[in-house]
Amino acid sequence: MSTVPLLRVDGVRAVYGETVALHDVSLDIADNEFFALLGPSGCGKTTLLRSIAGFESPAAGRIEVDGEDLLRLPAHRRPVNMMFQSYALFPHMSVEKNIAYGLESEGVGRDETATRVAEVMDVVGLGHLAKRRPGQLSGGQRQRVALARAIVKRPRLLLLDEPLSALDRQVRASMQLELKRLQHEVGLTFVVVTHDQEEAMSMADRIAVLRDGRLEQLATPQELYANPATRFVASFIGSANLLDGVVAKGGRVRVPGVGEVEVAPHRLADGAGATAVVRPEDVELSADPATSMLAGVVVDTYFLGGASTLSIEVPGLASPLVASVHGTSGFARGDAVGVRFGRAAVVARDASAARGASGEDASGPDASGPDASGEASHRREAGETDGAGQEEAEVSA
């Protein structure tokens, strides 16, 4: 992967009336990178994608591809293509005609068009369906047609807006792997917008996590999971036990009802508000509470095939801890267990989590997964996707 950025977003600010959808967002995307814009509804990710595509005009900032200012170019002249959430296929055209439409509109010769369409249909596995119409295809097949139509024009940058949201869970899982394979095979830079953290984690080389129009963290999936920069990222990426407290001497985090928790190295000052982030797989259970850091009681278990998830009620904590073990756990509801923590990350405590962290009213762990608290923060983002309408067929073609 090249270290020279293909796409540069510098201080982009988007405003709709009194609502600021993007707050001076800056990021670089490398050539041939699979990049994800991730966040809850209303976080600004679709606004940013549409600004790159040319459907929105930022109030401030620059967007460059290969050093060229995209904001000076209309949408149809930008070296980007966009695959929309609805796919926007022409229902009266065959698969091969849908794919060829963009090339024919640009006046590409018949022989070259036929060659490029045949090549891309082979790449996405649609050669045997060339004569069918969209209504005769499954959801996964329609998704491949839309993808083929986007990449046949060989853009420098391919933008994908919630590309898998219309598929059922099983098909979506297989298409995640397929998109990653295709991205490597065709050698394009993919930028995908999604609210599904599992989808982003499985496909992307790097992920930008947005919240309320601000960039919370930009990192690899592994770094986001192991070392979240903020409490929001810790809760949004995967599941986590969030233990609010203060930094004690030696760098540990003193959590009411728990004691001092060993955490990864950090730069927070003694006495600063902090949140220890303990992933479920780092909660260690034993059958002997007397020799463990904490004693608890199993209040629920969930067997998920390859792993089991347990909820552990611990005196002094308002919410149960969540633990994950391989296979079956060996514990049942009502069992007394000992609890220890393995690796724990640490982030500065949000102001909203400060209450009770230093004394009597301890809020306890927040066993969090993806959070949609930003749902109502912006007026527009859902409408942008739904209202793409007339632009979709023209630009994705």
Q: What's this entry about, in short?
A:
The protein has 397 residues and is α+β, with helices and mostly antiparallel strands. 25% of the residues lie in helices and 31% in strands.
What is the number of helical segments per DSSP (H or I, 4+ residues)?
10
Largest sheet composition: 6 strands, mixed
Q: What is the helical fraction, as a range of percent?
A: 10-25%
Overall mean pLDDT: 85
The end-to-end distance, rounded to whole angstroms, is 28 Å
Radius of gyration: 24 Å
Strand order, largest beta sheet: 6-7-8-3-9-10
Low-confidence stretches: 354-363, 370-397
Q: Which strand-content bin applies to the residues?
A: 25-35%
- The shape, in one word, is globular
Structural class: alpha+beta
Total strands: 21
